[in-house]
Write a structure and sequence with these properties.
Layout (H helix, E strand, L loop, with lengths): L3 E6 L5 H13 L3 E6 L15 H7 L4 H7 L2 H21 L5 E6 L1 H11 L8 E5 L7 H4 L5 E4 L11 H17 L6 H5 L2 E6 L4 H13 L3 E6 L3 H11 L5 E6 L2 H7 L12 H5 L3 E6 L3 E4 L7 H5 L4 E5 L2 E5 L2 H16 L5 E6 L16 H14 L6 E4 L6 H19 L9
Parallel strand pairs: 1-2, 1-3, 3-4, 4-5, 6-7, 6-8, 8-9, 9-13, 13-14
Antiparallel strand pairs: 10-12, 11-12
Helix pairs in contact: 1-7, 2-4, 4-5, 9-16, 11-14, 14-15
Length: 419
């Protein structure tokens, strides 16, 4: 049976664009399921399966009331909420295999908000005028593929025809490609691990060792989005344990850096009761988008900076900031409902914090460790090891402790694990 691609967008104002994409999809042998989010009207260029009135109702309002109010912002909110409900229901019913939409800022917001309700792995493509710069509101924590529209999504021309044709080919190819999984991998328990450039050596070694013991390790880049994505998968019940080697996103939260994952970071494993090994990896650095993006108060204070690459400037966190992080880490661990432990590297929490390196500041490190120990419940263990975070001995100890926490969670009482 031919697979189905869901076509979603404002068919009232962009029906010519959508008709072109729909025709291209049909030519390739796929079926199309159409969902109209246009408040102003509909189209007679092609059949509509779910009309805007149904979408508006799912969003908690009538289409007539939205038209009467003439409040574009409110209409976008209602249609976004309704589109999420409609797509969720249609997917649960097995009605489509992939989704494509198009639009400017408003249209992209509606269709990508709806796409974000779908699981990771479901093909999602949006041709958008905003497919550059900060696309986080449109992608969220899901695998939404944004294709720059180059010209506005406002009719057919020699440029838009090329872009639309390629987008139609992209969604068809994504739907066509089957992602199989070997039976062995399908049943392996999953450990999520957090990583940064300054902890890559450690996390790579941990992942290799855990793979050999029968675990599948999903590594997340601790750039704000990475931490939020990891914790969203934890909340979704897709993760069995968390090896939190790189908790640097809290440095950005404290110092208003660009890689903050928000104040909820470190909370999901505890909410789910999962085994959680926490390491203060890269808490010595906050991240900014180049030297000019560093807040003026930090520049004026004579703080220590390092140009990691042309778009990332690192700032060494100080004693007060590390103390604050220690307090927060203790609060998060105290609230956990599952087994949690800490592993502290006494010779540096990153490459740059190694002995003699630019960010080496044992006073700041010690402030974090002391605040952590002071705030922790007495039954939460803190282990220290006299190495840098990237030394082989540290990764070996981290793996052993991770396996011990997993063993404790399973209740088998076996905490002696060889690595």
């Amino acid at each position: 049976m031919a697979k189905t691609i869901l076509l979603i967008g404002a068919f009232d104002t962009k029906d010519a664009d959508y008709a072109f994409v729909r025709d291209r999809i049909l030519r390739r042998g796929y079926r199309v399921l159409s969902v109209n989010t246009g408040v102003l009207g509909t189209t007679d260029r092609f059949p509509i399966d779910i009309e805007a009135a149904e979408v508006a109702a799912a969003g908690g309002a009538s289409l007539q009331s939205l038209r009467a109010a003439q409040d574009r912002g409110q209409a976008m909110k209602v249609m976004s909420a309704g589109a999420r409900q409609v797509l969720s229901r249609l997917f649960e019913e097995g009605r489509f295999d992939g989704v494509i939409g198009m639009g400017g800022t408003g249209g992209s917001s509606v269709v990508t908000t709806a796409m974000q309700v779908l699981p990771v792995g479901v093909p999602k493509v949006c041709v958008s005028t905003v497919a550059s710069g900060d696309t986080s509101p449109y992608v969220g924590l899901k695998d939404v593929v944004l294709i720059p529209s180059i010209v506005d999504v406002a009719g057919l021309n020699r440029v838009s025809r090329i872009i639309y044709a390629r987008a139609a080919g992209a969604i068809c190819g994504m739907v066509e490609e089957e992602v199989g999984e070997e039976a062995e991998n399908a049943v392996r328990p999953v450990i999520a691990a957090s990583m940064f450039g300054n902890t890559t050596q450690c996390v790579d070694a941990c992942a290799l060792a855990l793979d050999k013991t029968g675990y599948e390790v999903l590594v997340f880049h601790a750039t704000g989005t990475g931490g939020r994505t990891m914790e969203s998968l934890v909340d979704a019940g897709l993760i069995n344990a968390v090896l939190d080697i790189t908790t640097t996103e809290w440095a950005d939260e404290v110092c208003e850096g660009v890689f903050s994952a928000g104040a909820d970071r470190l909370s999901a494993p505890g909410r789910r009761g999962l085994p959680h090994l926490i390491v203060p990896g890269c808490v010595d650095m906050a991240n900014y988008n180049g030297p000019e993006a560093v807040p003026e108060r930090y520049r004026d204070a004579g703080r220590l900076f390092y140009d990691w690459n042309p778009t990332v400037t690192l700032m060494r966190t100080n004693v007060e900031e590390n103390q604050r992080m220690g307090e927060v880490f203790a609060e998060k661990a105290n609230a956990a409902t599952g087994p949690v432990a800490f592993l502290l590297p006494l010779k540096g929490v990153s490459i740059l914090d190694g002995d003699g390196e630019l960010f080496c500041d044992r006073e700041a490190d010690t402030a974090m460790f002391a605040a952590l120990k002071k705030g922790l419940n007495k039954d939460i263990p803190v282990y220290e090891i006299d190495t840098n975070i990237n030394d082989p001995a540290f990764s070996q100890r981290a793996v052993a402790l991770m396996l011990e926490l997993i063993s404790a969670a399973s209740g088998d009482g076996n905490s002696s694990t060889e690595v």
